[in-house]
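User: Can you help me understand a structure? I only have the sequence.
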Amino acid sequence: MGNTISYVIIGVLIFFLVAFLVFTYIKDKNKNKKIIEKKAELRRATSKTTKELSIRIYSLIEMNEQMLKEVVPGVSEIKMKNVNNTCKKFLKDIYDSKAFKVLYIDSNETNPLYAANIKKLIDTSSNLWSKYCQEQIEFFKKINDELIEDQNFEKTQNESKELIKSILDNEVKNNNEFTK
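Assistant: Let's start by predicting it. Here is the structure, written out as tokens:
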């Protein structure tokens, strides 16, 4: 009788041990599946954001050239500092956004040149980009050229240009109010 009780106790312990191991295995498998799904979702979000930001940034680069042509010292309403402030504000808003920091600065999953190139553009006056930021301009031009066929290209580009115009208009307005 004593042996039977010992065998039953050992059998119950082995059953619980096997059940615990199976439970742990299934739990870890589900956890790993969720992690893989989250990483795939992050890659999709990063790709979408990279496309959108690249279009926005290159739109700014193109508009910067146009705005600089409109600046005539002492004559035009638009001043060089308005153009520089507009470009800096537009890029700084992107760079300081939470999404940008999570995807490009705090992550090892993305190209580190992306954030570095934006930072270089922010730190350089926009009227000097063609002289000191050719590498950065080419970086964003290459990405932009790859995205021309994207279905949201024109929409994103137009939205960006409208936002840039709005920022420039506010800069000019604030400058004119300050000088009066």
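Now, to help you interpret it: The chain has a mean pLDDT of 89. The longest helix spans residues 2-70. Let me know which part you'd like to focus on.
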